[in-house]
Fold Calcineurin-like phosphoesterase domain-containing protein.
Amino acid sequence: MDSLEKLTALLDACSELGVDTGPRTIGDLGIVPLFSWYHKSFDKEKDVNSVRVPSLDKACKDFRACKWPEDLGNDDEDLALYFDKLNDKNHDAIEEVKNNSKQILTISHFVPRQELCPEKRMLYYPYLPKVIGSDFLERRLRAIHSNRKDGTACHVFGHTHFCWDSVVDEIRYVQAPLAYPRERKRRMNGGEGWLPFCVYRDGFNPEIYPALWSDYYNKNKREPENTQLAPWVARHFAKYHKFI
């Protein structure tokens, strides 16, 4: 089986078990899960070239674990577009949710905006933004949330394991990761005491939760042209003698 056949089998298994994976309205809340995949062109910020790090295909298991049909080719943007178009199959259900919901929660695994990830100079793996997100995803969720009033649009995402809670262009973006055990133990991600995270209870929770990175960017302007390593990243690479 290739990876798309596995996805179909997984969705079929959910259906047989009574697990709803499609858009629906529950009370006043519309819930819209979205298919997506990442593409390298999602990364629009300047690369950090002062350190040697493993290439994407060596660092990311996806490149070894996923098997795609030959007709999709090797272009990751084509793959991201393919996954985005899977959402078209739910067009009527999404329109029904939009018409019958006072608030809408969209959900994705991948990241819809690069601003929802720390800058490369802050990361132990500076190539991370090339394998986390999709421009197609952001356009898709924006279309779903169009004409929403303040406080009625929220998107929950994952993948990067960074706790995040911020409002960007009238949409609230939240990531509350369980993360890996070692990350929880070392409190690497911020957001201690978050879990379980209450997203909605008779309306979206109005409290913006404190989180290491979203708090940082609420107070500090993003500097995508700055490639000077953050002190903790510089110490990490100096320790392993990986400076060029």
Q: What stands out?
A: The first strand starts at residue 24 and ends at 26.
